[in-house]
Every structure is written in structure tokens, then in C-alpha cells.
Design brief:
Blueprint lengths: L7 H21 L8 H28 L6 H6 L10 H4 L5 H22 L5 H29 L3 H14 L11 H8 L10 H14 L21 H10 L1 H5 L6
């Protein structure tokens, strides 16, 4: 699939499914390692929500492709260059502040995207979005509360959360940029041009940062390319772990 021109609907579905699946896998890495038991369970549940959403998006992508591949094939048999997730979600967990900074920035964007997809001209996309936004509303509230708790907490927690935001901020720019796939999908009424989400996303971020006594990082650097298949080295290691079993025992049944 790399380098080919494909149906913009298929590409959009891959982007939605890949974002959810990769971030879900990242959060699953916290299972058994959370700072407190309640948070360990919360992150595991959010991971399950995202993986469930990924299944719906990739099932639909497989149908759009003509059922040449299944959702499992798309999840476990694509190589790095065929993945369409944003660079933000594939970044390592780091410490708890890093994870919450990444989660909050993505949650605000994810909620804005789903809010617009509810009105998609495609009933399947609109239906999945309507289901997913109920879960993502909780995800956003959860990460928001942690951002405020850590940002407006102790001197050490404030320092760590500000540093986490500074480290991850440059990966957010590609979330709000449009390419030919986005423009083609928007023209067909399937979804929205990501650039139109910028005011909503920015307002949501700024309101919480103010309450958390944190400073919005400067736009001094940015990196992009994940949605076109250009990824950081971290995705390859993640996929090696996530895809190991089905690649070692292809077509195995349980």
C-alpha cells in the first residue's frame, strides 16, 4: 500500500483506527505499573476502549477495501510504512507526566474529530463516532483532571508536567494540518478538514493549562509525517511486540 493513491475514505479510516490502536497499545504498557491501583485500572480501561474503537474503524476499512483483508490483517500484517497514525500517539510512555501530557493533547483532538464525524455523510462513520465520543468524553475528563492535579500540585509535579508538555508539543502540529486525503474526504462530506479544528482544540487546551498553572509551549519546533507513513523509530519496536504472535503463528485459531 505504501506510496499508492487509495480511496480517501479508506485512508481516513486507517488514520482513525491506527491512532486508536497504537495509543491503546501504549496505554496497555502501563498495566501493572500504574502509580496507584485505581489509575492502573483506569488506564487499562481506556486502552480497551481505544482498541475497541480501532476494531470498528478497521473493520469498516476492510469492508471499504472489498474485504481483501480483515481488521486483524490490517492490525497485524502491515509493516511500519503502511501505518497512518500520527507521530504523537507512538511516542514512548516516559513517566506518568509524559503519558498524561500525550493523552490530554490527543484526547482534546480526538473529541473534536469525533464531534464533527457524528455529522458525516457516511452513516457507518457517523455511527461509530457517536459511540466512540461517549468513551472519549470520559478519556478527556480523566487526562484533564490529571493535568490540573499535577500542574497545580507540588513544585516537583508542576516541573515534570511542564517538561512533559514541552517535550511532546511539537508532535501536535500534524494533527491540525490537512493533506490531499483530508481535503478529498471533506469534499465528500465524510469528515472535516483538520485545520478547522484548530480553534476548538486550542481553546480547550488553553483553558486547562490556565487552570493547571502551566504555560503553553512555544511553537519552536514541529515534526510530521506519520499520517503519510513516515514514523519515528519507536513505532517499529511497538509493532514488533504487538504483531509478534500472529506473525509467528499465522492464521492460528484458539
Amino acid at each position: 500500500m505504501t506510496g499508492e493513491t487509495t480511496d480517501p475514505k479508506f485512508e481516513c479510516l486507517l488514520r482513525l483506527g491506527d491512532n486508536a490502536l497504537i495509543l491503546g497499545h501504549r496505554l496497555s504498557e502501563w498495566c501493572g505499573h500504574g502509580p496507584i491501583l485505581e489509575e492502573d485500572i483506569a488506564m487499562a480501561n481506556i486502552a480497551l476502549d481505544l482498541i475497541g474503537q480501532a476494531t470498528l474503524w478497521l473493520d469498516l476499512a476492510a469492508a471499504v477495501e472489498g474485504n481483501i483483508r480483515t481488521a486483524d490483517d490490517l492490525a497485524f500484517k502491515r509493516d511500519v510504512l503502511d501505518w497512518r497514525n500520527s507521530l504523537l500517539v507512538e511516542q514512548p510512555n516516559g513517566d506518568f507526566a509524559d503519558t498524561m501530557a500525550r493523552q490530554f493533547l490527543f484526547d482534546c483532538h480526538h473529541h473534536a474529530v469525533l464531534s464533527m464525524l457524528i455529522d458525516s455523510s457516511d452513516s457507518d462513520i457517523a455511527g461509530i463516532a457517536a459511540k466512540a465520543i461517549k468513551e472519549v468524553t470520559y478519556h478527556r475528563r480523566h487526562s484533564r483532571e490529571w493535568l490540573i492535579r499535577l500542574g497545580d500540585g507540588t513544585e516537583e509535579s508542576h516541573r515534570r508536567m511542564q517538561a512533559a508538555l514541552d517535550r511532546i508539543w511539537g508532535y501536535t502540529h500534524e494533527l491540525l494540518e490537512a493533506d490531499d486525503v483530508d481535503r478529498a474526504a471533506a469534499a465528500r462530506g465524510l469528515g472535516a478538514d483538520p485545520t478547522t479544528l484548530r480553534p476548538v482544540w486550542g481553546a480547550a487546551i488553553d483553558a486547562v493549562l490556565e487552570e493547571a498553572t502551566l504555560i503553553r509551549p512555544a511553537d519552536s519546533w514541529s515534526i510530521r509525517g506519520g499520517r503519510q507513513g513516515l514514523h519515528s523509530e519507536h513505532l517499529g519496536f511497538l509493532l514488533a511486540e504487538m504483531q509478534f504472535l500472529p506473525r509467528t503463528y499465522p492464521n492460528a485459531s484458539w
